[in-house]
Write a structure and sequence with these properties.
Radius of gyration: 25 Å
CATH topology of the largest domain: Argininosuccinate synthetase, chain A, domain 2
Strand content: 15-25%
CATH architecture of the largest domain: Alpha-Beta Complex
CATH class of the largest domain: Alpha Beta
Largest sheet: 5 strands, parallel
Mean pLDDT: 94
Strand order of the largest sheet: 3-2-1-4-5
Oligomer: single chain
Helix content: 40-55%
């Protein structure tokens, strides 16, 4: 008999895993289960969550609208850090988990719960992301990870359990893979995607048109930034969530933001993920273009050496760790002068920079021009080159004597 638990707050999505977990917790621990669902922009997926959780046995259901918080306090700081995991993944699932866990802890406090539970498997990254957040914010709460406890060792076993307990099964032959959706992206993994040689079926994608089906005429969009954060699209100022929603629609129409990646999980294995991140892809390209004008060379290069480490921190689940918070302050400082406007051209899956301008620009035509100028003495370059070449000359002279 497991240790006594009175009330558990479960991070609940209404999908196969968490639906089964809800009923399993009740039967295994003889406890009350509170279903918590974070609204991060899943849309229609949330319509049936409350009824389904109550029918499955939850004593109460909390659906918390976190869309604005998600973009303002998690996505935008991450974008200010230029985070890309393994050069491709914009971390849409990774950045959502610490917010979900944070809000789950808050619900646990309100409900007087003594435990929290999640539906992440013992093979994946999400278990780490959830539990590192619990440890940072609520080390007193017990953590229950059913995938590491139960005998239901496969999706097939879960489906059988669900059918035996009259729980609707959302995984079908039409969609034989798992999905995670929020305001920033949709991810797909498992099932037919486990073969890295197999091309994802086009009907799988829910956000974006295929580049082949995208409009034959490109569209231009202007994005305005203030201190590294996007604040307006085509001259219209928008709040964080509305701005991202606008760019998601625009990017999706033009086939922007699809990524197919075999990535290295924190636990040590490789896995394949397919992602759609239209608005995030646009914002990432726009900020890089503006940084080319406004960031000092050494600051930019130093920042870029830290991006892989920063992205790892987020991917691994260390959002609330002191090293991430310390690094974030440096990254935010780097963005202080990233103010201005970028014009992008979107065309059949491609994002091309068409123009950029900034009141904080370091670009000076009077220095950079190939025409005659009076501010740069070209003969100064001779000494600069000679000093930088000195070590190379000495090495060559040594090798010639050998």
């Amino acid at each position: 008999m497991p240790d006594a638990v009175k009330k558990v707050v479960l991070a609940y999505s209404g999908g196969l895993d968490t639906s089964v977990i809800l009923r399993w917790l009740i039967e295994r621990y003889h406890c009350e289960v509170v279903a918590f669902c974070a609204d991060l922009g899943q849309g229609e997926e949330l319509l049936t969550v409350r009824d389904k959780a109550l029918r499955t046995g939850a004593v109460s259901v909390h659906i918390v609208d976190l869309r604005e918080v998600f973009v303002r306090d998690f996505i935008l700081p991450m974008l200010r850090g230029a985070a890309l995991y393994e050069g491709a993944y914009l971390l849409g699932t990774s950045i959502a988990r610490p917010l979900i866990a944070q809000a789950q802890v808050e619900v646990a406090r309100k409900e007087g719960a003594d435990a929290v539970a999640h539906g992440a498997t013992g093979k994946g990254n999400d278990q780490v992301r959830f539990e590192l957040t619990y440890a940072a914010l609520a080390p007193d709460l017990r953590v229950i990870a059913p995938w590491r406890e139960w005998e239901l060792g496969s999706r097939t076993a879960l489906i059988e359990f669900a059918r035996a307990h009259d729980i609707p099964v959302p995984v079908t032959a039409e969609r034989p893979y798992s999905m995670d959706r929020n305001l920033f992206h949709i991810s797909y993994e498992g099932g037919i995607l486990e073969d890295p040689w197999a091309e994802p079926p086009d009907k799988m994608f829910l956000l974006t048109q295929s580049p082949e089906a995208a409009p034959d005429v490109p569209v231009q969009v202007e994005i305005e930034f203030e201190a590294g954060d996007p604040v307006a699209v085509d001259g219209r100022r928008l709040g964080p969530a509305d701005l991202l929603t606008r760019l998601n629609r625009l990017g999706a129409e033009h086939g922007i933001g699809r990524v197919d990646l075999v990535e290295n999980r924190f636990v040590g294995m490789k896995s394949r993920g397919v992602y759609e991140t239209p608005g995030g892809t646009i914002l990432h390209a726009a900020r890089r273009a503006l940084e080319s004008l406004t960031l000092d060379r050494e600051t930019l290069h130093l920042r870029d050496t830290l991006v892989p480490r920063y992205a790892e921190m987020i991917y691994y689940g260390f959002w609330f760790a002191p090293e991430r918070e310390t690094l974030q302050r440096f990254l935010d400082e780097c963005q202080r002068d990233v103010t201005g406007t970028v014009r992008l051209k979107l065309y059949k899956g491609n994002v091309t920079v068409a123009g950029r301008r900034s009141p904080r620009s370091l670009y000076r035509t009077d220095f950079a021009t190939f025409e005659a100028d009076s501010v740069y003495r070209q003969r100064d370059a001779e000494g600069f080159i000679n000093l930088n070449a000195l070590r190379l000359k000495i090495r060559a002279l040594r090798d010639r004597r050998a």
